[in-house]
Amino acid sequence: MNNSCSYLIIAFTLLCVLLINGCSTNESSVNNEVEIKVAAASDLALAFKEVGELFEQETGANVTFSFGSTGQLADQIENGAPFDVFASANVTFVDQLREKNLIIPETQTTYAFGRIGISTLSDSPPLSIETLEDLLKPEVKKVAIANPDHAPPYGLVAKQTLENAGLWDQLQSKLVYGRNISDTLVFIETGNAEAGIIALSLYQEDEVNFHIIDDEMHAPLEQSIAVINRTNEEELAKEFISFIKGPTGKPIMESYGFIIPEGK
């Protein structure tokens, strides 16, 4: 074989290698650019961050979360916010978006039921607050709950619980309101409230004390999720919803205190 042929073979081989590498790079870039944006209730912050990381590992897609009060997120979606998935803490808001043709109806599902409890700062002087009646103690100056008017459902069920316990009127002078359930927890963590009613899903043992409230004291915290009909990533959004209730997501959600319904 003469030198000219050898040079041609080497050049051809190098060209093939470059083309293969170029295609691989392009495919990788495409995968990395696939993204879904999830509007999620504040009580999901810890659980969804963990679920989201595993979903990214499995699919190669990116997941961006925007956490906030369910009502505010619903308003943003109505005003055209570019979300692909809405994970609500209150089924009512997803129902309302369905009635306005803003979600894909067949994607709506109940993905979890939440729980609430009484919380105090773990390293604060012992207040021995374990029951709702303990909130009346004089050493409890402030009690934090989510705003019933602006942060349903957690604000509403906190109010409902206190009303059913016959304590709502007696605690009026002590109540401070969080913009959402995460904000309510901040009141306790910063010492601006001696106690509060928070979501079990936000409870971290090394930071706060927590005593579960009997769920018969309030309406069920049914949490609903759906794909927004403006999405450009419908299949990936559906896959994310399935992932939450699947063999990987379900144990994580349950570890944060959510009750995952079967077959819904």
From TrEMBL:
Binding site for molybdate: 70, 181
One GO term of the biological process aspect: molybdate ion transport
Entry superkingdom: Bacteria
Presence of the UniProt keyword Signal in the record: yes
Pfam families reported in the protein's UniProt record: SBP_bac_11
Gene3D superfamilies membership: Periplasmic binding protein-like II
Family, as annotated: Belongs to the bacterial solute-binding protein ModA family.
Protein name as catalogued: Molybdenum ABC transporter
